[in-house]
Amino acid sequence: MPSTATAGASHRSRLRLIVIQTLVFSLLATLGARLYYLQVVSGERYQGKAASQSVREIVVQPQRGLIVDAMGRPLVTNRLTWVVSLDRTLLGRMSAADRAELLRRTSEAIGLGVGEIEAKLLLCGDDGAVAGQCWNGSPYQPVPVAQDVKEGAALRILEQPEDFPGVVVDRQSVRQYPAPYGINAAHVLGYLSPITKDELESAEDSGDSSVNGASVVGRAGVEKEYDEWLRGQPGYDQVAVDSKGRVREDVSGLEAQPGDTLVTSIDAKVQSVVEEQLAAMIAQQRRTRDPVTKRNFEADSGAAVVLEAKTGRIVAMASQPTYDPSVWVGGITDKQLKRLYSEAAGTPLLARSFQGQFAPGSTWKPFMTVGALTHGYAPSTVLPCSSAVQIGNRAFHNHESAAYGPITFARALEVSCNTFFFQVGMHFWQTLGADADDASAKDPLVEQAERFGFGERTGVDLPGEASGRVADRKWKRKYYESMKDYYCGIAKKPQDTGPKGTSDFVYKFAREFCVEGWKYKITDAANFAIGQGDTIVTPLQLARGYAAISNGGTLWVPRVGKAIVSPDGKVIREIEPKKERKLKIPASVLRYLDDALQGVALRGTMNWKLQGFPLDKVQIRAKTGSAEVYGKQSTGWVASYTKDYVVVMMMSQGGTGSGSTGDGIRAIWEALYGVDGEQVDPGKAAIPGVTPPAQLPNFGDDGSILPPARAKGGE
After folding, report:
1. Residues 118 and 130 sit within 8 Å (Cβ to Cβ)
2. Fewer CB within 10 Å: C terminus or N terminus of the chain?
3. Could you tell me the pTM of the whole model?
4. DSSP H helical segments within 557-633, as ranges?
């Protein structure tokens, strides 16, 4: 018979077994219930989540809008290019050896170094990321690593997907420049580059969905000014992928919307002539000896502008040096970028037509004439045109003319008599502001220059415009305050006469500036009256001023954009000419000035370049100018106009105005009006009908550009 102790132990064992069995059955019941809940009750929801993990959203970049000229000729279009991208997500799942092998194989296929591919795969913001190379888009989107890949290489990757897991090959559009009539127009058109992190964050904060991390945006020219119209709206594709990241099927998507077309006021045929003539004039002057320095002219840069006189629309605009706009397509190299900013190369990125600032020389005199004739002087006023005027201890000379005796304003403009205008400038200084310390003294010549828009931006629809400068009394005092420490620092030390030391001129100037650099002296007023000294203008500002003389006194805001057209050919917005203000100038003064400037072409300083030109049929008004620049050769100008157009050309370190650019000015007028010898043939005019076209280009229902209607006698 078992003992009581043995029976108690057996009972406890059975009790433990029952407890364990109960726990096991409870756990099994719980797991079963959970399994039933997951598979039956919530099965559809979790199945959807699992499926969503194999679906990726790929942003589809829109095709950027076209840019065309006033006649519908394409200036900027798009072309398809093979692009190779890598899936960072899939690369992250690979072993180090597999990843290295894939990058090596891809590098070999597309001809790009492994290190360059690695740099492009880094997210901007990661350690080691280099701006301009790193990926600024979504980390879940395939990263483009090579553009303009040869078709053979692209097809090889597509045909051997097992060898290139995670490598995506597709065709994307990039900018193309058809260059009708061989034009360049780089500074007008501008360029594109990838969106920056700050720009992307700003767009996201404002709710702008038209850009993403893979977007390119306009950086200059009309590409920047009209970027929001040109860029279009991105779409997306949702695709199912397998465990290796390979696309198996399209799930859904939203089609990208192409950008709108920008119609410009540029005429490609005129632009071609302007660019050709500007380059030819510079090349010609570089072969010409400067009679003053006895060496060839540097002719280091230049610009030209053609405006519609009655609207302010820009028909053509060119700058030299220039660059190939396609250099930005696919990413610019450090070497190429350095050259664009290089002073040794002439700073090709600078648009001298509206960003360059130069002393206007004698082209300034017509505006001074208006100021004088509306403040006490009369068309009958006669002043002596001597060869020089003594002001203080210095003789101020004529530049392009000798002594002509007593003459009127009209004759002074014809022969470009400096000494005549010196006297006008000195007269106003002596009668209204003889106190050189008085920064608030009135000056009708300064006031008139400002009314013509000098010293302020024109408002042209191109970014980065310079404002120029009207160097009056207030400016001189501000300049002194900003520079006195620098020049006084030079003046207070003994002159360094070493090879790299301070020149005698600079040392003397510094000492004088330190003592009385704020004073607006009579010599400043004299220089101002002939466009010398510290006053500077842009070629576009000067062209706008002459347009106001031509059209009866209306100052227009220059415009390149003419209309925005949707991809289906509908005009969304017409960009109308914009008046800035009507100048309060008596009609009699403008008529007098108009006749005087016609005399410059018929008898004056421009006549020698217009021999044999049919001035009776194409009545050109003109003014030449040569601005002296310390340490450099003169800046040459010619500003000219008719009732239809304004044509301005300038050349830095080119010598006299007519001598440096006169032939080019004539050639542009011949193209505009169809001049052949002494005859005018409207059928040969660059713009059909001679006068600017009022109509927009013709667009098909699909947004394609149709040939312009053939005007009678036109092209």
Report:
1. no
2. N
3. 0.86
4. 587-602
Q: Which amino acid is at 386?
A: S
What pLDDT score was predicted for residue 313? 98
pLDDT in the model for residue 485: 95
Cβ-Cβ contacts under 8 Å for 255 (sequence gap 6 or more): 60, 235
CA distance 455 to 692: 29
Q: Which two tokens stand for residue 511?
A: 């000492």
Q: Please state at what angle helix 587-602 crosses helix 539-551, rounded to 10 degrees.
A: 110
Where in 274-424 does DSSP place strands (E)?
A: 301-308, 314-320, 383-385, 388-391, 394-397, 405-407
Residues facing residue 578 across a β-bridge: 557
Which pLDDT score, from 0 to 100, does residue 714 have? 35
The whole-number pLDDT of residue 710 equals 43
Residue 207 to residue 358: CA distance in whole angstroms: 43
CA distances from 419 to 410, 422, 688 (A): 14, 5, 44
> Nearest to residue 344, comparing CAs of 304, 302, 300?
300
Low-confidence ranges of the chain (pLDDT < 70): 1-12, 36-58, 132, 140, 238-253, 399-401, 689-693, 700-715
- The H or E element containing residue 421 is helix 418-432
Q: What is the pLDDT of residue 711?
A: 40
Burial class from Cβ neighbours inside 10 Å (0-12, 13-18, 19+) for residue 534 reads: middle
Alpha-helical runs (H) found in 160-247: 186-189, 197-205, 221-225, 227-230
**What is the reported pLDDT for 573?**
96
Going by C-beta distance under 8 Å and a sequence separation of 6 or more, which residues neighbour residue 58? 141, 142, 236, 237, 238, 239
Strands (E), 635-697: 635-641, 645-652, 675-676, 679-680
What's the CA gap between 521 and 514, in Å, rounded? 15
- The string over 156-193, giving b where at least 16 C-beta atoms fall within 10 Å of a residue's C-beta and e elsewhere, is ebeeeeeebbbbbbbebbbbbbebbbebbbbbbbbbbe
Give the pLDDT confidence score for residue 385 in this predicted structure: 96
Do residues 325 and 349 lie in contact, with contact meaning Cβ atoms separated by under 8 Å? Answer: no
pLDDT, position 249: 57
Closest C-alpha to 67, from 373, 462, 406 = 462
What span, in angstroms and rounded, lies between the C-alpha atoms of 24 and 4? 31
Q: What is the pLDDT of residue 247?
A: 56
Q: Give the helix ranges, DSSP H, for 114-168.
A: 114-121, 151-159
CB 637 within 8 A of CB 363: yes
Q: How many whole angstroms separate alpha carbon 454 and alpha carbon 447? A: 10
Rounded CA gap, 154 and 160, in Å? 10
- Please compute, for residue 405, the number of CA atoms within 13 A of its CA located in the half-sphere on the CB side: 0
CA angle 455, 460, 464 (to 5 degrees): 75
Q: How far, in Å, CA of 282 to CA of 305, rounded? A: 16
Rounded CA-CA distance 119/122 in Å is: 6
Question: Could you report the per-residue pLDDT of 229-253, keeping only the tens digit for each?
Answer: 999 998 877 666 665 555 565 555 6
In a 13 Å sphere around the CA of 617, the CA atoms on its Cβ side amount to: 17
Angle between helix 539-551 and helix 365-373 axes, rounded to 10 deg? 40
Three-state DSSP class for residue 81:
strand
The predicted pLDDT at position 51 comes to 47
What's the DSSP call for residue 696?
Answer: P
pLDDT in tens, 476-535: 999 999 999 999 999 999 998 888 888 888 999 999 999 999 999 999 999 999 999 999
Burial state string for 276-286 with b = 16 or more CB within 10 A and e = fewer than 16: bbbbebbebbe
Rounded CA gap, 561 and 130, in Å? Answer: 36
For the record, the structure tokens of 280 come out as 């030819």
Cα–Cα distance, 290 to 74 (Å, whole number): 41
